[in-house]
UniProtKB/TrEMBL annotation:
GO molecular function terms attached to this record: carbon dioxide binding; iron ion binding
Pfam families: HupF_HypC (PF01455)
Gene3D superfamilies named in the record: 2.30.30.140
Family statement: Belongs to the HupF/HypC family.
Taxonomic lineage: Bacteria, Bacillati, Actinomycetota, Coriobacteriia, Eggerthellales
GO BP field: protein maturation
The protein, known as: HypC/HybG/HupF family hydrogenase formation chaperone
Amino acid sequence: MCLAIPAKITELDEGNMATVDILGVTRSISIDLTPQATVGDYVLVHAGFAIEVVSEQAANETLDLIRQFPEFAEDVQPAPAV
């Protein structure tokens, strides 16, 4: 099953990329699909892409649910170094 996970944009990088925080894990994602996204926004991340900007309240509600299920939270791991 694939899920879109809420993440907070912490930094805008070159080439329509952004750094996000997902439950304490930092990842680099593409914001090609959400060019309006900026630092401090919450976005839904799926397959390395921000697919939608969401409200902080909606993001936190979803993150709170994820935290209640450790098996989901365990899936949010740092990407392997390349």
